[in-house]
Fold each of these.
Amino acid sequence: MSPSAVTEPGSRDPPDSKSPAITKDGQKRTIYHLDRHLHKDFPVVVSGKGNHLFTKDGRTIFDTTSGAAVSCLGHGNERVINAVHKQMTTGIPYLASSYWGSEIVDDLCKELINGTDGKMAKVYLTGSGSEAMEASAKLARQYFYENDKQTPRVNFIAREGSYHGNTIGALGISGHVARRAPYLPFLMPNVHHIPACNAYRQRKEGETDESFVARKALELEEKFLELGPETVIAFIAEPVVGAALGCVPYVPGYLRVMRDVCHKYGALLILDEVMCGMGRTGTLHAWQGEGVAPDLQTIGKGLGGGYQPIAAVLISEKVVNRLSDGSGQFVHGQTYQGMPVQAAAALEVQTILREENLMQNVATQGAYLEKRLKSLLADHPHVGDIRGKGLFWGLEFVRDKKTKEPFDPKLGVAQRVSDLALSPLYNMTLYPGGGTVDGVSGDHVILAPSYIVTKDDIDYIAKVTSDVVHQVFQEIGSL
């Protein structure tokens, strides 16, 4: 597809099998940059506009994943670019938060608090989701330390099959087996995991949502009792699990009962919405779909839409009051926190989301994406589950649909699907993930298009995804 076709999404048709084979032209051959994979070349991107990325070798790629569920407004948004430029021209893209305040930083924080309908009270700005998770863990511990310097609350409860970040603390909280493995000797021993909320793999035959959720609450309560309720700081969960499990959503009622168990024993509820938040699931915050506000919440990715590196911790009034009535400070800080240029980008992104009512588009197009994916792939013998919310959808692949047996990890099914989608045959991104079942076995891909997609875009995304999946399994069947 040529760049000129970008303005006419309805005219796009998936390329046929006679398209040229993938070549090395325009592929990445870096010498000095340590890439994510040292033995793989990547297309070199030279520009982007809307839902499209343009490569050095003349290809036009439809970005179906918003990078890693980041570019919620697509690429090249002039309003956000101008907002960043305006802040840069003030001469203060950066301020040391230890000494100075910033009006635009406070304006962003006000916008974020308003977006929670006043359920949260203050915002702590960071540069990445991992940093936000580190901050939330420390803030949760300090909440109890303020009242008792000898507090026995030292334990966190998190879930298997979740990913909360790459820093040592955030990785220690995570339940992602493969990413934890090289660093196990460094990780915190005071994090304890319970099963995820994965209805596809855990629901018993005939089990209702209410019964399933009650069983999940019991798992959490039993862990509290095992550890000693007085030793638990918080329970941490992604409302919709992103990269680790492939868009596995909470079951209705789950967030409420888990919060109730936490509060029964005086612990905090921390929700990690770095990937699934800021509009991705059809409400600004995923927890708003159930009306259950956490004590602490992390956000990122869609907060700045990729125009600046920014994330945050949203803090409830009770946590703020504990600090205010105690030491009056959060014993934590980073050089690049609360930068005005980061705030300028994020404020403009959030303003656009609100002014253009993009949450409605996420809900509308998300429902249509679900319909199209299920229409094209629900009967495929190797598509075990199609799940998600809003514009955040995952496909889980299985060798046997009845038993839900996964493929041998050596086949690299999800990566094969992603690689074929990105090839010149299709020119579209799909986000691959492995370890979906037990941290080692299991394959899924994620679709997380921008909030500006149209019905025609969704038709295109679903058709290409279906064609890619069918082709990959035809090739696997011939091995």
Amino acid sequence: MKKLLYALLAVSMASCGDKTAERPANQLAGNDFESVDGWMGDNTPNSLTKEKAHSGQYALKVGPAVEYSMGYNNLLGKLSASKLRKIKVQAWVNLPNGKTEAVLVTQITDPANPAAKPIIWEAVKLTDQVKSFNKWVEVEKEITLPDNITYANKISVYLWRTGAAEPAYLDDLIISKSE
């Protein structure tokens, strides 16, 4: 009986596997926002919401009370051991209607010179890609990085409301190496 129990436990653990093993080789970073709640105590960002989610219970929301969502911020050297030439940013978004002006921003800056203009600032206007409202739609943007990008530059990806009165929701954000 013990042997059968151990065998079932081993099969069960093997089938669950390590989530990193499921991650595609070109994926650099990703978040479904499930593991964020509770890590920041009382400082949990007000963009984290249970109102709507593509997967799990949590997503990010911008709206009249929240101009910018939490997002991904890291040095390019920590994101990839090799120099990046192209990246793709993908996410699932939910818009109540076509009136929102929210954008998904990808920017690369030089942390050694914070007053300088971003090296890259690309925004996906969500209503340009989303034509079905009040349901989850995948959006993506491929970005070619300039040759002067270094490992010391910082990448940031976040949702920006841009002053719109309508909310926008984002979930399952993935940044991947495109080339």
